Recover the amino acids of this structure.
């Protein structure tokens, strides 16, 4: 019989390993995007599906998986998700056309989306207070480390094996990690069923299958138009049109479900919590900002600045590495300063991002890449200081038994943002840089202009994150005054 402290350490090992494995896959294909266009003949729309489709299905699976984890237990869901993730990686690595790779990326996303709510839920179940912040910091560090090695490993595989074999190795590189996670989860995570919280006055928790279905349809209707760049605008509008019916139907169903003594998947105590909603808004802006700009930057460094895949990976490595270091100590910021400290860091980050935009617009071509390295270092440190504290502050508003649903909701808004930002920014980059000679980042080509547009979006998202964090600071102070 293991002691509680041993159980907590074992759970943390599995959580960190799961986060590393799935976040590695989220980042690694960005460095291979130009190769996929050349080797598989992937068009703009297919490339967007390959890069952003993973986040789409990741997001779709999060809330149902979080709910199931609360009800039936987390270990089974975690192992199931990683097994699907691993099998899909095998299929993707053996694909012979872009459409097959798109499908396997969608399946990978489903597997990752099933597993990841269990990670945050397990941390919520087994850790409290500053220990929870440290655990979330370790998870953020694992993600940052995955971001460090993803472009490096991807670039190295492409350089060593050549583009034809290299991209297959890039797609399948996560398979050994996934198998290790399955073994560790079965060995270290205690089995057991969850004990979901119920709405006050509710008689049974249930799964709320109708609510889950309506949420899934709503997310699909919201995100799919961003991945349909090669179709007329009216067709994309038609895909999004069900939102006009599904969202009111979802709200009406959830109210009625609660009145019948059941527990709806849209937990009223979460939806009505300003701290949870504002924390989710902060996460939405920062997550989409990071992944969307990363995808565009990889395209710019290779297609615009003429770097190899490995060189492009080396450009972002220092920033990603220091982001991980900052994430490992970010719990100290949370313990000392709380939400006001996080808000202050967001303000500094916004200034740094605006400086990046000024550099993209004005710095001479030979000095631009070194300036980008410095910018990535500064913003990486600032991102590392805020990611896990914001998660901890947001999830503090989840009552006992709601940890899986709260974690799924938080990660869902992050994945929605990632899907939208990756698809929109890469699509805009390809469109704006079309006709550029590809031999440099000079003003006569479209690459620098395309990067500038992406950076403007990043600045806007940073301003929105700062505003949401500042609003949560005000709300928190009012709660204390009361």
């Amino acid at each position: 019989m293991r002691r509680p402290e041993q159980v907590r350490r074992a759970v943390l090992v599995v959580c960190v390993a799961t986060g590393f494995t799935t976040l590695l896959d989220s980042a690694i294909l960005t460095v291979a995007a130009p190769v996929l266009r050349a080797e598989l003949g992937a068009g703009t729309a297919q490339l967007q599906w390959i890069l952003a489709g993973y986040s789409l299905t990741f997001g779709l699976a999060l809330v149902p998986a979080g709910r199931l984890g609360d009800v039936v237990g987390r270990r089974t869901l975690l192992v199931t998700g990683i097994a699907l993730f691993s099998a899909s990686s095998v299929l993707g690595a053996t694909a012979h056309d872009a459409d097959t790779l798109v499908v396997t990326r969608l399946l990978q996303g489903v597997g990752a989306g099933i597993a990841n709510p269990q990670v945050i839920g397990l941390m919520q179940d087994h850790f409290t207070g500053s220990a929870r912040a440290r655990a979330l910091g370790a998870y953020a560090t694992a993600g940052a480390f995955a971001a460090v090695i993803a472009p490096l490993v991807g670039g190295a595989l492409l350089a060593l094996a050549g583009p034809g074999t290299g991209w297959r190795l890039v797609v399948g590189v996560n398979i050994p990690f996934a198998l290790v996670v399955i073994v560790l989860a079965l060995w270290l995570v205690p089995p057991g069923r969850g004990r979901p919280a119920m709405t006050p006055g509710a008689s049974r928790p249930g799964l709320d299958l109708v609510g889950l279905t309506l949420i899934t349809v709503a997310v699909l209707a919201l995100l799919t138009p961003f991945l349909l760049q090669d179709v007329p605008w009216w067709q994309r509008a038609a895909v999004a049109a069900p939102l006009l019916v599904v969202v009111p139907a979802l709200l009406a169903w959830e109210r009625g479900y609660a009145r019948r003594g059941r527990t709806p998947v849209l937990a009223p105590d979460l939806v009505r919590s300003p701290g949870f909603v504002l924390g989710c808004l902060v996460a939405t802006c920062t997550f989409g900002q990071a992944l969307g700009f990363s995808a565009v930057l990889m395209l710019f460094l290779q297609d615009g600045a003429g770097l190899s895949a490995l060189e492009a990976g080396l450009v972002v490595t220092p920033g990603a590495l220091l982001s991980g270091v900052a994430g490992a100590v970010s719990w100290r910021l949370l313990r000392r300063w709380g939400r006001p400290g996080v808000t202050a860091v967001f303000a500094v980050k916004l200034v740094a991002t605006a400086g990046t935009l000024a550099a993209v617009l004005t710095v001479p071509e030979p000095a631009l890449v070194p300036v980008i390295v410095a910018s990535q270092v500064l913003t990486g440190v600032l991102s590392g200081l805020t990611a896990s504290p914001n998660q901890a502050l947001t999830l503090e508003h989840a009552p006992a038994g709601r940890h899986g649903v709260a974690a799924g909701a938080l990660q869902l808004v992050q994945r929605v943002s990632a899907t939208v930002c990756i698809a929109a920014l890469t699509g805009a980059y390809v469109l704006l840089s079309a006709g550029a000679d590809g031999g440099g980042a000079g003003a006569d080509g479209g690459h620098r202009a395309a990067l500038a547009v992406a950076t403007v979006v990043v600045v806007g998202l940073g301003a929105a994150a700062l505003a949401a964090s500042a609003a949560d600071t005000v709300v928190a102070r009012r709660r204390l005054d009361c």
